[in-house]
Amino acid sequence: MFDIDAVRNDFPILTRRVHGHPLVYFDNAATTHKPKQVIEAITDYYDRFNSNVHRGVHSLSGEATDAYEGARARIGHWFGVEDTGEVILLRGATEALNLVANIIAPELSAGDVILVGESEHHANIVPWQQLSQRIGVQVIPIPVSDAGTLDFDAARSLTQTHPVKVIAAGHVSNAIGSVNPIEDFISLAREIGAYSVIDGAQAAPHLRVDVKHLDADFYALSAHKCCGPTGIGVLFGRRALLEAMPPWQGGGDMIDRVSFSGTTYNTLPWKFEAGTPNIADTIAFAKALDYLESIDFAAALDHEASIHSHLIEAMQARPHIQILGHPDQWVSVCSFNVEGAHPTDVGTLLDQLGVAVRTGHHCAMPTMEHFGLPGTCRASLAFYNTHDEVDQFLQALDRVTGMLTDS
Ligand code: PLP
Fold first, then answer.
1. What is the CATH number that goes with domain 49-292?
2. What is the pLDDT of residue 1?
3. Most CB atoms within 10 A, among 146, 204, 210, 399?
């Protein structure tokens, strides 16, 4: 049973006031808040067994290693991946996608095509463009429809006329909240012998993601969008590919033997984890997943979906509001503009009333370009938000709309 009051009590920051108003935090797509269980896991690590992992014979190092590797197994298990060699722990989705672009590079030649969703976050665009500059591959966008989802038929047509070697798509768009048909993109990639690379940063907090079942070649996400800490994320990769591909960064931990006559590399997953890892935050990310399980995550998502529908319906009924997209499958986000007002002005005035939304291009400039907008205001919900908070947001927005459209 999902108990919203008990859940909110677990998040100390939700009691904050901003400019004299109770905080209404609708910026969850940027980062979620952390329950006290996660915050305590970080201090517990530093209080009791802070030590570097893997290399020590002393007790604290053994305890830290067990906790760190145990967390890896926990994280993999939550996402349906039992082989811990396929769970690469990195700084976040951005680092994961950069790693993929770099380790795929030797498999590609000048003229090969990488299809990239037009509505991607810059983290799933720029690494491919950098690869293009380095080795002459072509990056071609998969168009986004006016509803806000990636156009699968257009992608299929592109594969019939171009030598496509990689399909890189977001599971959920951070600027719109649309759920893309990634199962279709993954099957298409397999059919044509291309790699599938999925950015799951916005899917992991809002869907029950089973990476093994999706069967993409690579799937990236960040902990901080799922109630975990910043600075930790995961790349799930198919074992056979990870074994065949070269490491990216070099240094401690990723090696087997180092000699000036030649260096050999560690086994998976450590081959892709050079240097001291983010031990405390990995442990705390596993705790965040324990927490999601403890509150009945499926029920939490049902609650979130119901307040999201309330938000969308209320926004659609407001004549001065334009909403970005109208996808069939939609999670968390409502990206909007107030007619005649700049999104920054709307966001700044909302903040004065205690409401936190994000404004701007949301690291998705091509999406804004597609819709001919400089940016939007983005309200994005999490399971700890409430129906009442949606109403407080709507009241605040009506006041702001009045102020901006009267002047
Ligand atoms: N991909 C998407 C869809 C995102 O929303 C974000 C963050 O906003 C990222 C990638 C990058 O995540 P991070 O900054 O945690 O690496």
1. 3.40.640.10
2. 81
3. 204
